[in-house]
Design goal:
Layout (H helix, E strand, L loop, with lengths): L1 H23 L3 H13 L3 H13 L5 H13 L3 H14 L4 H12 L12 H10 L4 H24 L3 H33 L2 E5 L3 E5 L8 E6 L3 E8 L2 E5 L5 E5 L3 E3 L1
Helix pairs in contact: 2-3, 3-4, 4-5, 5-6, 8-9
InterPro entries: SH3-like_bac-type (IPR003646), TPR-like_helical_dom_sf (IPR011990), TPR_rpt (IPR019734)
Keywords: Membrane, Signal, TPR repeat, Transmembrane, Transmembrane helix
Pfam families: SH3_3 (PF08239), TPR_16 (PF13432)
Length: 257
């Protein structure tokens, strides 16, 4: 009986104080606002910590990544700044402010690597596909398809030809546009997520001819450079630079976007 009362007492205490611990932990919105306030006061290190706490809670958004990138940029730490700008860009590729800040950060790193030139039509098409955010494309697709099918229902039940004909053609056009939005969304996802990219975090990295420290050094890359991971081999990764150069580096030298 005594043990049962003791157990009940402890359970009651835990029940009472648990909400206090939950309240004490700041929610993502509060942490994000806190980070913004710290950033406004030029407390960039503290702001970065607040934004990282938001990410640790599992809350990910372009705004959090972008602001975290800005905090690191202000601290002069270009590798993490570029990493988080790239993460923000993946979520909202059409955001001009993110693109501009990413370009500015890349101007401050040692390696200036020109990408392999693209055919102008392919480059234009890719820019068009990446102009919209995933959220915008999703909204476009849903709204256009709903309106399109609604107009087709109007066409089926309307009696006047002055209503049936416009409803039919407008409905077909809207459905085609909705399906086009879905297609562009899938294509955008392919552009952004079909390859694994990473940012170099080590100051200087020797790129080897093979996954071996004793291999021949082909070239050198520096902190902040973006690479595409082509292959994994234990603690080594095969990477490709934007200019097409390929070699092997240790996986600990980079952080994946």
């Amino acid at each position: 009986m005594h043990n049962r009362l003791k157990h009940f007492f402890y359970s009651f205490i835990l029940l009472v104080i648990s909400p206090l611990f939950l309240c004490a932990k700041e929610n993502p919105e509060t942490l994000f606002a806190k980070g913004n306030g710290q950033y406004a006061k030029a407390q960039y290190k503290e702001a970065a910590q607040s934004y990282e706490e938001v990410l640790k809670d599992g809350y990910k958004s372009a705004d959090v990544y972008f602001n975290l990138g800005n905090a690191y940029y202000k601290m002069g730490e270009m590798a993490p700044a570029i990493l988080y700008y790239e993460k923000a860009y993946k979520l909202t590729p059409g955001d001009q402010e993110i693109s501009l800040n990413l370009q500015l950060a890349n101007l401050k790193i040692a390696d200036k690597i020109d990408a392999v030139p693209e055919f102008f039509l392919a480059k234009w098409w890719k820019s068009f596909v990446l102009f919209f955010s995933v959220q915008a494309l999703s909204v476009f697709a849903v709204v256009l398809l709903l309106l399109g099918f609604t107009l087709l229902i109007v066409y089926l039940f309307a009696e006047l030809m002055t209503i049936k004909k416009p409803a039919f053609y407008a409905g077909i056009c809207l459905i085609v546009l909705g399906l086009l939005s879905v297609f562009i969304g899938n294509l955008q996802n392919s552009y952004l997520h079909n390859s694994t990219q990473a940012i170099v975090f080590n100051g200087t990295v020797n790129v080897k001819s093979g996954p071996d420290e004793k291999g021949k050094t082909l070239f050198v890359i520096h902190e902040g450079t973006k690479v595409t991971i082509k292959q994994n081999d234990d603690n080594w990764i095969k990477v490709e630079l934007p200019n097409g150069n390929i070699g092997w580096i240790e996986s600990v030298a980079v952080k994946e976007i």
